[in-house]
Amino acid sequence: PRRPGEGGRKEQLSVRKLRVLLLALCSSPEQAARRFQSPPRRIRRWLRRLQASQHRGPELPEGKYLSLEAEEKLAEWVLTQREQQLPVNEETLFQKATKIGRALEGGFKISYEWAVRFMLRHHLSTHTRRGVAHPLPKEIQGNAGAFIEFVQRQIHTQGLPCSMIAAVDEISLFLEAEMSGSDEGRRENALQTVGNGEPWCELVLTVLADGSVLPALVVSRGHLPPPAVPPSSVLLESKENGCDDDEIMELWAARVWRKHTECRGGASKGMLVLDCHRTHLSEEVLAVLSAAGTLPAVIPAGCSSRIQPLDVCVKSSLKNFLQKKWRERVKGLKDPDLSSLLQLLLVCLGEALEILADCRELIRKSFLVASVLPGPAGDCPRSNGDEQEELIAAMEERLSLAKSRESSPESAGTEGAEADAEVLQRLFEGESEAESFYGFEEADLELME
């Protein structure tokens, strides 16, 4: 067989190998290893081969693939899908790419090689640890810059204290409908954080710029008996048909934010950083925020991975922790019903929140790295990327994720695969009533509309 580099020809990976790499980039190396029964070490080797071929071979032929402008539209779509926890996989990516490519003369030639290189060119792997260092697609990069300028100006001019600057986000948790009591494999992987259907539970997580973690709100679908001893850091609401987005945010505003502002005596103005998906601000929510002098700062679509503090180092580690603990403990449940599964989830979440409560410095830094808080003069994307990499490593160490990866035969070598993908990437290229918020000038609130 031809050795890498011989004859100056570009190394070709088989379609199967490219499919494995595409799943690793769209979801995770662990999922790719499970689905295709390929050891992570092997996936890592294929990534290295692709890296080597990038040095030797030309880009894909012109005229058959998407233009840079069209690729940027596709990259925006990937980012907004992920913000809504909607699937980005081989099927959905190819469907969207084909739809965008129909406008091209002569049609759009789709291939697995193009898809893998596209994901790397636009820094779209899910396991990147330096996301804040990578540029967003041009159209939304400007939106992100304007948002950061707006938020930092408000914090400075209004003198907002860090204890009143919050980042809030909603995490949907999906449960596979059919879980056979005898099929442990299905039970272990039943808890998912990406899905198309109605979620089993909605988790609303809130952290403050001073590093504090507020109680988490969990809204579950169905009337269930309350857990025997719910963790003190978790507020539970169960409704037969679940809640819509307005109701979830109204519950959060009443049970979490109002209580927090009342504990502080209601003297300070505040700011709430949240994304523009699934968090439509109803009149009831706006009334609570306005009464508390809290300004909602809505992150533009597609920008959360760079400027949402929860996305910088907390959410992915928390999701991994919950899924890891679920896999370990669901084995011990015999013929579990929804009530016992909810109890399991709440216990795992309570443990995670207890650990996060001791990570004040890491959470505080995430607001700096996300540029919500003004950082030291001279900050640059590369230094922020270094900071994010360190933050994620520290957060995973606190949650013992790194240790569990090393000891798990299934995921041995995953960390190296993530690092390889990162090296590859470096080679490739709501609605609101503004005037109702006391103390904030209407002219300063244009970004909210």
Automatic annotation (TrEMBL):
The keyword Metal-binding does not apply. GO terms for cellular component: nucleus. Coiled coil: none annotated. Keywords: DNA-binding. Residues 402-425 are annotated as: Disordered. It holds the Pfam family HTH_Tnp_Tc5. Residues 58-128 form the HTH CENPB-type domain. It comes from the Eukaryota. GO terms for molecular function: DNA binding. This is POGZ protein.
